[in-house]
Amino acid sequence: MITAIVMVEVDAESINDAAQRIADLPGVDQVYSCAGDVDLIVVSQLRDHAELAELVPGHISRVPGVKRTVTHIAFRSFAKRDGEDAFSIGLEGA
């Protein structure tokens, strides 16, 4: 699986409509509206690069109001460790 994070710049008056249209696209897992350099952040998990190549230029970029996209591909995922789980390692037999 490939995890893609797509930063999307949208016309101000189109943000809500564009966000919903993008969220409804097959292959899109989450859409966040945000403050900063971009208006929307899209997270997708796709089978391969061909699906990504179809999703971004073929669908996201064509949503009315979308002005620009920048795509990032994730290499690894890191999460905060649960402290209790970390401290209980090896204590089952104690």
| Beta-strand residue fraction | 25-35%
Low-confidence stretches: none
Instruction: Tell me, briefly, the overall form.
Output: globular
Q: Please trace the helix and strand order, writing H or E for each element.
A: EHEEHEH
Gist?
The chain is α+β, with helices and mostly antiparallel strands and 94 residues long. Helices cover 27% and strands 31% of the residues. The protein contains three helices and four strands.
Task: Describe this protein's structure.
- The structure is a single chain.
- By secondary structure, this protein is of the alpha+beta class.
- It has a single domain, classed as 2-Layer Sandwich (Alpha-Beta Plaits), CATH 3.30.70.920.
- The chain is built from three helices and four strands.
- A four-stranded antiparallel sheet has the order 2-3-1-4.
- β2 and β3 (40-46) form a beta hairpin.
- The chain is globular.
- It starts with a strand and ends in a 6-residue tail after the last helix.
Features of this protein?
single chain, 31% strand, 4-stranded antiparallel sheet, 3 helices
